Amino acid sequence: MFVSLNWLKNYIDIENISAEELAEKITKTGIEVEGIEYVAEKSSNVVVGYVKECEKHPNADKLNLCLVDVGEEELQVICGAPNIAQGQKVAVAKPGAVLPGNFKIKKAKLRGVESNGMICSLQELGIEERFVPKDITDGIFVFPDEAEVGMDASQLLNLDDAILELGLTPNRSDALSMLGVAYEVAAILDLPIHLPSEKVEMTSEQASDYVTVNVEDPELNPYYGAFVIKDIHISHSPLWMRNYLMAAGIRPINNVVDITNYVLLEYGQPLHAFDFDQFGSKEIMVRRAKENEKMITLDDQERTLNSEHLVITNGNKPTALAGVMGGANSEVSNETKTVLLEAAYFSPSAVRKASKDHELRSESSTRFEKGVDPDRVKRAGLRAAQLLSKYANGTVLNGVVEFDALDRSEAIVEMETSKINDRLGTEISNEEIVDILRKLNFNFNQDGDTFTIYVPTRRQDITIFEDMVEEVARIYGYDNLPFTLPEGASQAGGLTVQQLLKRNVKSYFESAGLLETITYSLTSNARANLLVSPEVKNDAVIPVKLKMPMSEEHSTLRLSILPEMLDSLAYNTARKQTNLGYYELGTIFVSKQETVTEQPEERLRVAGAVTGEWVSHAWQQEKKTADFFLVKGIVEGFFRKLNIRVEYKQVKMDGMHPGRTAQIYLAERPIGFIGQIHPELQNDYNLKDTYVFDIDVDYIFEVQQNEPSFQKIPRYPSISRDIALVVDEGISALDIQTTIEQAGGSLVKEIQVFDVYQGEHLTKGKKSIAFNILYLDPERTLKDEEVEKSYQAILSAVQEAHQAELRG
Amino acid sequence: MKERLQELQSEALEKVERSSTLSDLQEIRVAYLGKKGPITEVLRGMGKLSKEERPVIGDLANKVREAITAELDRKKTILEKKALEKKLEHETIDVTLPGRPVQVGGPHLLTSIVEEIEDLFIGMGFEIREGPEVETDYYNFEALNLPKGHPARDMQDSFYITEELLLRTHTSPVQARTMGEYQGSKPVKMICPGKVYRRDTDDATHSHQFTQVEGLYVDKNVRMSDLKGVLNRFAKQMFGEDREIRLRPSFFPFTEPSVEMDISCKVCSGVGCSVCKGTGWIEILGGGMVHPRVLELAGYDPKIYNGFAFGMGPERIAMLKYGVDDIRHFYTNDIRFLKQYHKA
Questions:
Q1: Is B231 inside any structural domain?
Q2: How high is the pLDDT of residue A600?
Q3: Worst-scoring range by mean pLDDT, A394-403, A780-789, B105-114?
Q4: Between the ranges A147-156, A507-516, B177-186, where is the mean pLDDT highest?
Q5: Is B186 on the interface with A (CB under 8 A)?
Q6: Which of A182, A186, B55, B133 gives the lowest tally of CB atoms within 10 Å of its CB?
Q7: What average pLDDT is seen over chain A?
Q8: Domain-terminating residue out of B61, B90, B119
Q9: B162/B285 same-domain check
Q10: Which residues in chain A (577-596) have CB-CB distances under 8 A to chain B?
């Protein structure tokens, strides 16, 4: 809502307060002033001039040579506007004038003839073209005859007016009108309010002889009032009205349309003017549209209607889409002689439905959608009739032809001062409450501490006690509320075990050198199917899709963090940032339903990706490029930190390198994978070798709930033995290790691979793999014989199981 | 004999004095104190001496031996020290060369902000609650006093999956779920951080995915001044003790009265500048007293219980606190952005 302060001054005396100060007060009391604008940038030295003479320029076809009387002098001015004519009163920028954009007017010669100033268009005076009446967008502005020669044109055109831009919350639709804003400002500044007159002179001729009103569904249209105004003379509306409309962001059209728009803004009540002679009958019938009924609206669009849309008809055809837009067939034109003026209450839901379906948001529909003040519907009609009689030569016929089932009753709210204070933490007295209610212009009864409020119908947002708490608080001033802390029994705040674990997971990966990312949960359908961990793929039938995505890019809920993370890597690589180590802890969305009806499972995963050099700029050592075992080391460290034992098994999966990918198992249950991205996929993302992991964190948390218990620090020394074996290259380290573990007995505490070799000293197809085995008995010192016995058992077991040979 | 011993002593001491290497010293030690050395020789000749002279000469010989040994040890320490100094001299490195790099990871700025907020409210006795990102229409809207067709639903155009399921548009449904779980049996004091989604086209100030932290306190006799006090404490801890707050009336369907909170602008200290658009204040969060309908729907009797709720956007806070100029930075994961916020 744009509020012209000059317009507002018609209702309330705010001469002594600056726009900035007023804006600040309004903002603090409840309606955010989002900006202060002026109708136009400042101009100087622009006055009203009378065009005494106007002839063709001797040397130029399209220019006119004018003699303009500006009061103290007569100026010879050359003007190129097509609508310039002798006898007009125009805006003249005299030599020395400064127009918006710091455009200085000087004496000049145009095609050999002297020009002493400029005759201005509204745009040249700083008004935005979209608000300039269409007939003069290419020409100069012409003042009405009453304008006095020599007067300051800026002032006459209201160019110095300050406009407050109100950011209205949905509840404050009362401030979608100048009167509503006036009430608000009156409450804030404690000032009296002057309401406009609604007095209309009517002829003896009865409107009801011209038209009847029938309403089919009073729920959707509880009030319909029709006024008939004859002898209309279509012309400009008065200059002040055009000024106010332009200030409010509405383009002036003609007096009839301008008046309905003016009253719309003044009262917040949308009105509609039909050309009575084009209406097509003497019967107004308001009904639901028929299925597939067609009508052409004012914007010349054909609209297909349905039974949820409310229409005004002439008994036969729709003449308006109720509350949204009029029909082209009954539009007011320059030939209009008799106006049928509609003032109605249409239900918010009916108007919302129609404006949404037809994507028509108008000044009218926004107001109806939020519910107009029932008390002002008819009054706005009267006000418009009065203005039509005054400014459009209209003769208002007697009476309002109406259908009236409108509930105009006030909401009644009870409140006690003590309860207000309990809720606010204040000590407001009864007297202060009385004063606040008086400022708000609310009627009430008081019985000691108890108030009965009769809420004015303009404030549709106030229906319960809490609403009144807010009214009292905002007029009392939120600034005046004390600062207190809750007095209820205090509880210890804190993180749950799970929340702590989450923080631990993050801090581990960060300490391992990875940076945390946050990527989008919504991805493309193609990417949603990419790099999905096998156990997830097993559960998720298809990825969950949005009903109406904004773009394919963000249309589907992710089943893996990795595809969007690869996107981040690609983004960086494209910017020459090629050494990257990322991780992310986040949710994936798994639905087991073919057609989703229930909330998908949200599973917490941690995923990571490393590409490029891991160690670079090392002057004393070779740079280290990310590889499988680097990432595996990071993942192993993670499980070590959590004291969880997992196993890695070779796996083939889409999008991953067939020989460099392992699935991770926790006690036979697959919980994720680790490996290199398939070179083809790396290519798609323009990435060098990239290694990733993706792990089910929910399940880890499930097995991780117990706090670790204390393990005694061993008092006896351990014994360490190495064993180097030559085996077929296809035998995995894990297999051998498992054999060692099983054969070694209970004294074996740790087995570690410390060397792997393949090459010239070995037969082709063989590899050497060396383990370090740590023996420990926490209760006593070990004997060499025991260790030797275990070692021999291990040796024969690996010989047996893997045809391993001891390496010489 | 006596003279011979004294002669040997001064001779040896002079040699020690003149020696410059550890091997010199070793030679001297062997030459004078060894089994074949002159002192041993003198001692062997003691048999020829008289009974009276024998202890005197023996004593003297021992003294001479001790004196030479002491001097040798003293000199050895000096030479060893010198040798070490020389060795260390050779070991000198350029300490200005860089060390072996260790990869330093770190949290995302949004995580840092969220955890900072969490910890602040934990300190005021709040617990942290989390909930699903795919929500039911009921918890996202209806339980929060936003029945179907409510105009305020337009304020947060949403990503629907079905008629009844959508990506949550705020974390308030977690509040509704928590209250619903307790069914009016006990007070609620919680904050709920998380990801939320709205149908916005991504640009410098909008993101279709963003983060929210909301808070809820429901108890008997909760006052609006408590909301002001709690938010004031939060603002001062988060943004600095010198910052002021102000509340302005606003509107949310789930609170009444509703507030928006501004903090005084850090850049201009409230005088007015381009950051605060000349107002001296910066909008930071919204909140209010929980709407009785919301309490009722969750099984809390609004005649007995009431409370306050608030919600804020960590992106906005990060943008204000660190001057981040584009919300998209939080989601493109440019390493040059991520590396700037290494603080744990």
A1: yes
A2: 96
A3: A780-789
A4: A507-516
A5: no
A6: B55
A7: 92
A8: B90
A9: yes
A10: 577, 580-583, 587, 589, 596
Q: Mean pLDDT across chain B, nearest whole number?
A: 89
pLDDT exceeds 60 at position B343: no
Query: A202-404 architecture in CATH?
Result: 3-Layer(bba) Sandwich (3.50)
Domain with CATH 3.30.56.10 in chain A: 2-39+162-185, 411-476
- CATH code where residue B249 lies: 3.30.930.10
Domain covering A719-806 in this structure, CATH number: 3.30.70.380
Look at residue A708 in the predicted model and tell me its pLDDT.
64
User: A637-678: per-residue pLDDT in tens?
Assistant: 999 998 888 999 999 999 999 999 999 999 899 999 999 999
- Fold classification of A411-476 is Phenylalanyl-tRNA Synthetase; Chain B, domain 1 (3.30.56)
Q: Is the CATH code 3.40.50.150 the one for domain A2-39+162-185?
A: no
Confirm if A326 and A319 have CB atoms less than 8 A apart: yes
Question: Is there a single domain that holds both residue B133 and residue B85?
Answer: no
Average pLDDT for B132-148: 93
Query: Which of A174, A466, A545, A601 is best to mutate for the B interface (most B CBs within 10 A)?
Result: A466
Q: For A497-703, CATH number?
A: 3.30.930.10
Q: Which of B133, B247, B256 minimises the CB distance to A521?
A: B133
Q: Where in chain A is the domain with CATH 3.30.70.380?
A: 719-806
Chain centroid, CA B98 distance in Å: 24
For residue B4, is pLDDT > 90? Answer: no
Alpha-carbon distance A480 to nearest alpha carbon in chain B (angstroms): 10
Q: Are residues B86 and B118 in the same domain?
A: no
Residue B102 resides in a domain: no
* Residue B24: other Cβ atoms inside 10 A: 15
A464 at interface of B, judged by CB pairs closer than 8 A: yes
Close Cβ partners of A764 (under 8 Å, ≥ 6 residues apart): none
HEC readout, chain B: CHHHHHHHHHHHHHHHHHCCCHHHHHHHHHHHHCCCCHHHHHHHHHHHCCCCHHHHHHHHHHHHHHHHHHHHHHHHHHHHHHHHHHHHHHCCCCCCCCCCCCCCCECCHHHHHHHHHHHHHHCCCCEECCCCCEEEHHHHCHHHCCCCCCHHHHHHCCCECCCCEEECCCCHHHHHHHHHHHCCCCCEEEEEEEEEECCCCCCCCCCCEEEEEEEEEEEECCCHHHHHHHHHHHHHHHHCCCCCEEEEEEEECCEEEEEEEEEECCCCCCCCCCCCCCCCEEEEEEEEEECHHHHHHCCCCCCCEEEEEEEECHHHHHHHHHCCCCCCHHHHCCHHHHCCCCCC
Q: Which residues pair with B337 in a beta bridge?
A: none
| Assigned CATH for A44-156 | 2.40.50.140
Q: Does residue B195 belong to the interface with chain A, where contact is any CB pair within 8 Å?
A: yes
Q: What percentage of chain A has pLDDT greater than the value 70?
A: 99
| Whether residues B73 and B148 fall in one domain | no
Q: What is the pLDDT of residues A618-627, one digit of tens each?
A: 677 677 889 9
What is A114-141 written as a DSSP string?
Answer: EE-SEEPPTTTTT--GGGS-GGGTTS--
Task: Report ipTM for this prediction.
Answer: 0.86
Q: How many domains does chain B have?
A: 2
For chain A, give every residue range classified as CATH 2.40.50.140.
Answer: 44-156
CA atoms of A195 and A218, how far apart (whole Å): 30
Please give the sequence-ordered ranges of beta strands (E in DSSP) within A598-747, or none if there are none.
601-611, 613-615, 624-625, 647-650, 656-666, 669-677, 690-696, 719-728
